[in-house]
Amino acid sequence: MSLCVLEKVSKTYTTGDLVVYALRQVDLTIDPGEFVAVMGPSGSGKTTLMNILGCLDVPSSGRYALAGKDVTAMDDDELSRMRSEHIGFIFQSFHLLPYATALENVLLPTLYLERPVDGGKSRALELLSLVGLEDRAHFRPNQLSGGQQQRVAIARALMNDPELVLADEPTGALDTTTAAGIMRLLSSLNERGKTIVVVTHDPEVAAYARRVIRMRDGVPTEQPSGRTPRPLTAHPPVTP
Amino acid sequence: MRRFISSLHQALKAVRAFKLRAVFCIASVALGISAITVIVAATEGAYRRAYEMVDRFGPDAMLVLGGSAEARAIGRRDKTITVQDVEALRQAFPTAYLLVPMSSVREVNISYGNRRHQTRVTGTTEGYSRSWSWPVVDGRDLSEADVKGMRNVALIGAQVARELFANTDPIGKFFFVRNVAVRVVGVLEERGTTGAGHNLDDRIVMPITTAMKKLMNEKTYVNAVRIRFLDARNMGRYRQEVRAFLRQRHGLKPGQPDDFRLLSSEEIIRFLVALTGSLVIFIGITGVMALVVAGFVLANLFLLSVSERSGEIGIRRAVGARRRDILFQFLLEAIALTLVGGLLGFVLGVAAGPLLKLAADFPIYFSWKAFAAGLILSMLVGLIFGLQPARRAAAVHPIQAIRSG
């Protein structure tokens, strides 16, 4: 079963009498285990696509199903629950709580779970060691470098074991060396089976993905990634 | 519930994290609450004192004082109640089970052997100790025969007993009141000092007949009459009746002011409440203003905090926080701060209370009521003024918040 299914999804914004299409009749399927890069110039609709994939926004028309659940008609609380249970976010500017330690930041998603889980702390520590920060658990964000902060954010994104990890320009605030480290980490997560969608305008970043979707005027066009020539046999072709 | 507790936990964490905001909020709330605490304590103190005084005065008692309020103010003779008035009152009010005339002289020289003292002499009748619920603890009370026979006998207060007789038994001993030899027949129970600072035990009580003739050189007038009525519930009516009766006897025309004053427990309470009221109003306005200002300080700091922390709100929403999780968190932050402010304010109030007592001899009584009022008010400030910023925080759209951060 596909993880994300978008059917004729449109998103419009109305300013005065003018209706602007951010997404136009998008059909898109993402299967479990994929590593997808969404590229495109600003205003192309890539961020809107990510917001809809991440249940931060709902389509104006069309239908979106995540993990078999139709998100289209959900209210705000239900969307919150979908995010809590199915999605891990990674942002350009990390968005760690400045007054909480790395460990507390990783634990943040557990606070809003409908059903509490045991052993959250030991899982958080495992995740911190997975991203190579086991000795930084009690550091605050301002005591960590940019790359380290983004690793904490990745650990946080994995905390509730989501099916989908969404990364919005995850390396945008980092230098090339650090950025490469972060992308290698995301790749290794993907190799372990995590589904990852990266939104970026950077071809170097997109090159880590096995599938690249280019957005232009709210319409995606598919093309294989340049640098990682992996066959796309596992994935059905997607028509825009 | 679990989510509420975790919201509380997050709120407390944030409270600790944003220290400057916390300091301002707590300080401003504390100032207001300390004023409120003092008010509640002062009001309670005043009521306690009033009821204490009423209790001592007697809820069924009335005091008729000679001289009008106006005449007293300009220092005119305040003797208008005659011995005949007293008898007439006794005839006219059968419900008055005790009716005791009183005349006092202050700073009368008394002596026993080589011991000397100055005290207050009250001339009265046999009902005196009963009318004031003031028992004779040693010896006997004044009798009707003492009064009728104009005998040279006296009840003495505990202070006088100490001054003149030290450790010896005063009963039956003769001492001098001015140049009159008087025999001690009883000692009154120790009463202590009044709120105004009078030592009640520094007095001697003699038959009014003896005192008027031999100490005051007075035939007609008494200072005051103390009346106790059978039914304390009808004091308002008795008061009107006594007033009308005395006005008629004194030939006062409508429009003329009373040439006497009536004092009952009602007046005592009214007087004390009025005294307290002015202070309560003053501190009350100050306190409420301080609290409102504190509320605005809080609201502004929180609004600032909400825009400053939109990134935090965004990420919380992104990882699954619902709108009300955010609302609760910010509301709890506000209430936590104001509660700490309230506690601090109570401590400040308790510390400031004795100063007020020192400055104005004001009865102040701190109880759980002052504490509860402080806490509840401070919580309300947090709730009311924290609501708007918290709602704004809850309304922050996660997408915009994440983008802007």
UniProtKB/TrEMBL annotation, chain A:
MF terms in GO: ATP binding; ATP hydrolysis activity; transmembrane transporter activity
Record-linked SUPFAM superfamilies: P-loop containing nucleoside triphosphate hydrolases
Swiss-Prot/TrEMBL keywords: ATP-binding, Nucleotide-binding, Transport
CDD domains: ABC_MJ0796_LolCDE_FtsE
Coiled-coil zones: none
Positions of the UniProt region annotated as Disordered: 216-240
Entry-linked InterPro entries: AAA+_ATPase, ABC_transporter-like_ATP-bd, ABC_transporter-like_CS, ABC_transpr_LolD-like, MacB-like_ATP-bd, P-loop_NTPase
Residue ranges crossing the lipid bilayer per the database entry: none
GO cellular component, one term: plasma membrane
PROSITE patterns noted in UniProt: ABC_TRANSPORTER_1, ABC_TRANSPORTER_2
Limits of the ABC transporter domain: 4-240
Pfam families hit by this protein: ABC_tran (PF00005)
Record flagged with keyword Nucleotide-binding: yes
Protein family membership: Belongs to the ABC transporter superfamily. Macrolide exporter (TC 3.A.1.122) family.
Protein name: Putative ABC transport system ATP-binding protein
UniProtKB/TrEMBL annotation, chain B:
Domain ABC3 transporter permease C-terminal: 286-396
Main localization (coarse): membrane
Protein origin, superkingdom: Bacteria
PANTHER family: ABC TRANSPORTER PERMEASE, MEMBRANE COMPONENT OF TRANSPORTER-RELATED
Nucleus listed as a keyword: no
Listed GO MF terms: transmembrane transporter activity
Residue span, MacB-like periplasmic core domain: 26-244
Pfam families membership: FtsX, MacB_PCD
Keyword Translocase attributed: no
GO cellular component: plasma membrane
Alphabetic keyword roster: Cell membrane, Membrane, Transmembrane, Transmembrane helix
UniProt subcellular location: Cell membrane
Protein name: Putative ABC transport system permease protein
Membrane-crossing residue ranges in chain numbering: 272-305, 326-352, 364-387
Membrane topology: Multi-pass membrane protein
UniProt xrefs under InterPro entries: ABC3_permease_C, MacB_PCD, Macrolide_Exporter_MacB
